[in-house]
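Re: that chain you flagged

S.,

Sorry for the slow reply, it's been a week of failed gels. I finally had a moment to sit down with the sequence you sent. For the record, here it is as I used it:
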Amino acid sequence: MFKIGLIGCGGIATALVETLKPYAPAVQICGVLAQRSSAAKVSFLEHTVIAANVEELVQLAPDLVVECASHSAVREYGERILESGIGLVITSIGVLAEEPFRQALDEASKKGGARYYLTSGAIGGLDALRAARLGKLDRVHYRGIKPATSWAGLEQNRLKKIMSAAQPETIYSGNARSAALDYPKNSNVAAAIALEGVGFERTHVELIADPKAQFNTHEISFSGEDGEFHFSIIGRPSPQNPRIVRFRTVETL
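Prediction finished late last night. Pasting the structure tokens below so you have them in one place:
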């Protein structure tokens, strides 16, 4: 039996549990680290152990822990999980824009002899970017376009302006590091591209809110000595969380 622990009980975790059901009992969700008040509202947790803290989750001895929560969850629990010798899948990969924390995570990985794995967010094509990096990359650009409802965390007056706008509005334009740190809930794709390409500082990012958009659109372009690459992915937002696309859950697997 392969035991999986989860951090978080929101949209990604719920969809992940549903996707794994056909693999039971070979694959089992052995426990979920989440606030009990939140967990009580989630149906799939009725027969699942709820860990009140990271030590309780570690004591359940999962073979792998999947973070489905937030940057703060990775900061709070990531090192302890790795030091315990348990592998960790990180979906909130924008947290690695914080270089000191990334170094601390690497040290914890070495100490515990456990690896951490990064999901690619809501996109594909990173193999082409990775291959192009072996040559000389001159430019890497990411443009993310999401419905206005995906930006619920913005300051209230700005959000009202976006919701009532007739045209798309650029929320951010700059490097991937600032995008990941300033807009953590909408920049995991930018972080994935930066990590696979030329780094956070040299990856240019545009984040756009489009009041007329019904889907999440990710446009990636890069050029170098091997040529130019342009591709886009249009994904249907998850009903549980409009910031992410449905297939992100399968990609996490």
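What I noticed first: The first helix runs from residue 11 to 20.

Talk soon,
D.
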